[in-house]
Each structure stands twice: as structure tokens, then as C-alpha cells.
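Researcher: I'm preparing a figure for a lab meeting and need a structural model of a single chain. I don't have an experimental structure, so a prediction will have to do for now. The sequence is pasted below. Please return the structure as C-alpha cells so I can convert it later.
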Amino acid sequence: MELQVQPKLIIHGGAGSSLKGKGGVDIVRRSLFKVIEEVYALLLSGTPAIDAVVRGCQLLEDDPRFNAGTGSVLQSDGQIRMSAALMDGLRQRFSGVINVSRVQHPIDLAYTLQNSDDRVLSDYGAAELLRELQIPSYDAMTDLRLGEWMQERQENFGKSMAGVIAQLAEPTNAGRGTIGVVALDSQGRLAAGTSTGGKGFERIGRVSDSAMPAGNYATTHAAVSCTGIGEDIIDECLAARIVVRVTDGMTLPDAMQRSFTEANQHQRDLGAIALDSTGAIAWGKTSEVLLAAFHDGEQIGDTLEWTGLTNGL
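Model: Understood. Here is the structure written out cell by cell.
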């Protein structure tokens, strides 16, 4: 099969202040590269971008190192509520679920909703969709996440909620945990998917950026998935801002540079991965670490030890 376009792929497993809580650089790199290898093989075989993105998100949701699917953080009441979104750049169509529970792959619900008249569902609607699809109930809880929540409950008598979150952010980076996949397929189609377990210990009903165009957006020109503090991403409307700038004629590197310079000036804590229709790959962060990896058509690389504001290929 002759490729019309050289496929490109970039994924992320969150952003934060260190890699200590996830086992270090080598372990995170192995986790990300394994996903890159499987998903890039799909793209080479002619799999559409949107299907490759869904598969990549499923694999990342299944990795308990990342705060999405299995290994999602617990909200203040000890429950896991996950959000996910998918956007097909070809159709410029967004779909997502907000605060869904008891499902292994929230991205699957977003995928199902791509062809629905109602394309973004909150907790009750998403639960009803699970029943309609007869998807088995799934417990995404891990011992690590339960332990974090129990520690917070014990210490909450003497600490403010904000203090506890700050204390836990260093070892776990839970508050900035998200997974995302952006793909350009052999037909030149773009897609982006993002999934998260939320900030951890948040107020019940809090909505993350991951199920909004602020955190996940694509057109025929560019596609972006964001990670970091959701409120900061929403305030910048980061994914849509970058994509609209490229759609309006700015190069992807310039769109990333301008958008992250603005975010940095506003003291935001966030990151993003991006592709455009020419095959350009880009990433940016205001946080210390961005857990991203990519395939540029020739080889696999990552951003784990990269120290800048924006970069690309």
C-alpha cells in the first residue's frame, strides 16, 4: 500500500513538576514508546487517524501510571469520575463525556458519540449510554490512588485542602495528569483525543478541560491535545486557540510559540502536543516536565528531558 502522506503521531501522559511519582524517566519512556509503536503501526497500515487516536487513548487509559482510566485519581468523596473527548479534524466534529464512572475506557464513549445528535454527555447521560451499549462495569481504582485519598482524609483535620493537594503534587503530579493522542494518517486526516481522571480531591461535579474544545481540538489544518491544570487550560482556551491560529494561516511553530508565551505571561501551568496537516510536530509546556513521545515518520523521540517553552519538528 502506497502512503499518500507520511503518518505522524504524538502522545502525552500528562505534565508536572517531576517524574519521581511515575517511576522515573526510563519507565515512563518505555510506557510511552510501547504505545507509540502499536499506534504508529496502525497508521502505517492505513488506519484512519480517529481510530488510531482511540486505540492510543485506550492503551494510555489502561496504564495505571497515568491519571486516566485505570489509575484515575479520586475526587473529594472518594469516587472516580473521568472525562474524555475526541475530535475528528476532517469533519471538525467534537464529542465527549464528563464525569463518567465505572468504565474502563471513557474514550470509547466519546467515540460512540461522534455519530450522535447529542455529542457531549455528563455523568447521568454517560451512565445511561453505558447501559445502552451494554459495556461491562469496571473499577478503575488502584491501591496507590486509594492510598492518596486516605492520606488526604486523615490529614484534612490539620491541613487545608489546597495544602494537601500541593503536598501530593510533587510525588504524584495527579493534578496535572491527563493522557492525549494526536495523529495524522496516511490520507492526511487529523484527529485528537484526550482523557483524564481529573485533579484529585476536587469538589464533586468539577468539570475538567479534557472534555472541552479548550483542551482538545482539531480541524483539517491542525490538532491539539492539552494537559496540566484544567482551569488554566480553560482560561487560555489553549487547544482551540492554537488550532484557530494555524487554521487562520499561522505556522504551527509560531502558533505554539505565541500561545505559550501568552500562557507563560499569565502564569499558567499547562502543556500541549500538536500536529498540522503538513506533518509538522510541536509541543509546549509552562510546567517543568511534559510526558510526551512522538513518531516523526523515521524514529521515535520524547520530551521527558526537554527544558524549553515550545519545540517541534
